[in-house]
Structure formats: C-alpha cells, structure tokens
TrEMBL record:
It comes from the Bacteria. This is Polyhydroxyalkanoate depolymerase. Gene3D superfamilies: alpha/beta hydrolase. InterPro entries: AB_hydrolase_fold, PHA/PHB_synthase, PHB_depo_C, PHB_depoly_PhaZ. Residues 207-407 form the PHB de-polymerase C-terminal domain. It holds the Pfam family PHB_depo_C.
Length: 431
C-alpha cells in the first residue's frame, strides 16, 4: 500500500461520495422535484445532505469556535489565538484574552497526535480559560508538510515539547492528554537533567499509556500482536500530488478514521441513519448534537509514518518508557531524575483505550520524587473522553486538577468570581 496511487484512490473515493451527496441534495431541492409530491424526494435530499457533510468535513481542520470569555469585570473579553512558537510539525499557541488581568495559573495542554486535531481538546480549553492562561500544542497535518522538512518521530515530538516547556518557563503547569503522556514525562526528565530551572511546577498525566502492559486493552493488544513489517506494509501510504507534502510517507487520516469507526460500527451506523431521518423531517441544525460531535470526530489528520511506527515499536512493543529505557538523540532519559515537579495521574474506570493502571505506572518510575508530590485519581464510571472533556472532567476532575496546581504552584493563586466562556455562534443564528 506504500504508494501514491493508494493514497489518491482513498481521496478519490472520499471526493466521489461527497459529490454524490451534493448531487442528491441538489436534486432533492429542485422545485420541479417538489412538485411531484413524492415523499421519496425528501429522503433523497436528506441522504444527500448528511452524506455531503460527512465526507466534506473529513479533510477540513475544525475551527476552535471560542469567541470570548467573561472576565472579573463582568465584560466579555475576546479570545485571540496567538502563535508563540511556529515550527514545521506543530506550533505553540496561546489563547490570549486582551483586556483581562492575566491569570496566575499558566497551563500548557499537550494535545495528542493520534489522528485528530488539537481542537479535540476544545471543551478542555473552554473549561480552563476562565481560571488559567492556556497554551496548547497545535500539531500540523503531515500531508501539508513538505518532505524537505525532514522526519518527525517520537524523539522529535519529545524535543518539541521540551522546547515549548523551556520557552514558557518554570511558572507553568503541564497537562498531557492521552497519547503524549509518556513523551511529556520524558521531556520533563530531560529538563530535570539539562535545565532544572525550566521544569514546570506540576505535571498532570491524563489517561496515557505509560505502561501499556499494566492493563491491556484491544488497542494495546493490537500493537503487541501485529508485527512492524505488517503495519508498515498495510497502513503506511505516500501523500499524493494534491497536497504540499507530496511524497511524504504517512499513516493517512482516512485510514485511521476507518479504524476508529470500525471499533463501534453499529453505534455510528445507527447515528447516521437517525440523522437522515431527522433531516427528512427538517429537524437538523448546523450545531445540533450529531453535527457538533461528528464535525470534530470525522476531521482527521495524517500522521508521519515514522511517528506512528516508532510509537508502536518503542512505546507499546518495547515499553521503553515503562522500563525507563527511553533515549533521545542517543542519550538515555532517566525519569528518576524528576525530583521537584509534582505529578498527578488521572484515569477513568471505564477507559477502554488507556485502561486504569497504564497511566498510574508513571508514579512507580518517579523514584526521585517524594511521595508528597505524587497524586492519583481514578474517576468512577468515566470513559476515555470523559476524563478530559466530559461531565466527569467538568464536575469532578477539573476542580481536583486546579486544586493540585494551586497546592504546587509556588505562589498564592488569585481568587476570582465564577466566570464563563462563550462559545462561538454561527452568523446565521442567534445573537
């Protein structure tokens, strides 16, 4: 499969389905068709509407959709995205709130590079903005990065995070969501050895595979069962001529999406069938529950082949982080060197991606960290998404995380009245 032809065939199939949906929607909307009085017309139009939107959003990066945050003065302050550091494979972005007194909690969210854009953490950002200065790693779609920019694997990812943390300075709290947890742990260890003054105040690891063998899931079992040769031959493709990254070897987002969907195929199928029924009855909207979820879920990005393969080989198969045997640029990274950074682990009881125990393994690796600087929380009944963006995060985990930051912030936190973030509202509706 490692050819441009297979990549372009997938993109052609997506384009064709998008075109078929648009055509069906246009036919169903034609006045002459409505004059027939045939109810099938509405079903054709509804199918086309849902199909076109489904395949169109697969190649579009979602907007952050965060327009304003309410400040202590009762006014709505605009939220501006500012790039602090721009690099070929990802940027460090700040959600700046002009006119608002800067928050003393400075938080770096390290977003996963696992098929979706950093906007997957939109709700996490919204929940933190009222109380924190929020920064995030905004990873780029590999299909848009020219081959001339070179490779990007787990070591490069670790070095990117290390650079971002060093730039933001010691007065910082870092949250690693899911996939980056082991690499952020390694980045912190690098700072502990090379630049102790740049270490963050605290590190919160949320649902990450520090030790995939601690409690195996279907995801980790797949990585263990499948050989690297099979993975390279079946999932790696070469970006076609349509994009700037032409010729780059990637794990395509569309292929990743097919894998995501297959894990809960029956649920997704029923969801789309129900949406077609609602569309036929005129009960859908741009930001209804279905569209709000799938606009994000279906928006996927390509991952560099070397990042995906090195993640499987070194994090899952070789368990290099779990064994404290990880190296960057030929130099060993000793996680035991971390001795001043407070570390909190958050897991979900029903997490079927990174099961309880996988992330908790980080605390055993922190041999140089006093017990008083370690904390762990297992959220009852929570799945993977819920521990960083769902109800469990909002009601239970977020308050605990903020309290942990304050306890290890090295400064007195400025207390403020409750504030709220205002989500982006489309121009065609609402105020």
């Amino acid at each position: 499969m490692k050819y441009m032809l297979t990549y372009d065939l997938m993109e052609s199939a997506r384009n064709t389905n998008q075109w078929l949906g648009a055509t069906a929607r246009a036919i169903g909307a034609y006045p002459a068709m409505a004059a027939t009085g045939n109810p099938l017309v509405e079903w054709i139009k509804a199918w086309g509407e849902v199909t076109e939107r489904t395949f169109a959003r697969m190649v579009v990066k979602p907007d952050w959709g965060i327009s304003a945050v309410k400040g202590d003065d009762g006014r709505d302050h605009t939220v501006r995205l500012e790039t602090v550091i721009a690099k070929p494979f990802g940027d460090l972005v700040h959600f700046r709130v002009p006119g608002r007194f800067p928050r003393e909690r400075r938080v770096l969210l390290v977003a996963p590079m696992s098929g979706h854009y950093a906007t997957l953490l939109r709700k996490t950002v919204i929940s933190l903005l009222p109380d924190c200065e929020v920064f995030i790693t905004d990873w780029h779609n590999a299909r848009d990065i020219p081959v001339s920019e070179g490779k990007f694997d787990v070591e490069d990812y670790t070095l990117y995070v290390t650079e971002f943390m060093r730039h933001l300075g010691a007065d910082l709290h870092v949250m690693a969501i899911c996939q980056p947890a082991p690499l952020v742990l390694a980045a912190t260890a690098i700072l502990a050895e090379e630049a102790p003054e740049a270490q963050p105040r605290s590190l919160i690891l949320i649902g990450g595979p520090i030790d995939p063998d601690a409690n195996a899931t279907d995801v980790t079992d797949f990585g263990r069962r499948t050989t690297m040769g099979v993975l390279e031959q079946t999932v790696i493709q070469q970006v076609g001529f349509k994009y700037r990254g032409v010729g780059r070897m990637v794990y395509p987002g569309l292929l990743q999406l097919a894998s995501f969907m297959s894990m809960n195929a029956e649920t997704h199928t029923q969801s789309f069938v129900d949406q077609i029924f609602r569309a036929a009855k005129g009960q859908v909207a741009d930001h209804d529950k279905h569209n709000a979820f799938y606009d994000e879920y279906l928006a996927v990005m390509d991952m560099t082949a070397e990042f995906y393969l090195s993640t499987v080989e070194r994090i899952f198969k070789g368990r290099e982080i779990a064994r404290n045997a990880f190296e960057v640029a030929g130099r060993p990274v000793d996680i035991g060197r971390i001795s001043t950074v407070a570390v909190m682990v958050v897991e979900g009881e029903k997490d079927d991606i990174s099961a309880p125990g996988q992330c908790l393994a980080a605390l055993d690796l922190l041999t140089g960290l006093p017990g008083g600087k370690k904390a762990a929380h297992l959220e009852p009944g929570a799945g993977h998404y819920g521990i960083f963006a769902g109800k469990s995060w909002r009601d239970n985990i977020r308050p605990l995380v903020l309290k942990f930051m304050d306890a290890n912030g090295g400064h007195a936190q400025r207390r403020s009245r409750p504030v709220a973030v205002l989500p982006h509202v489309a121009a065609q509706g609402g105020d």
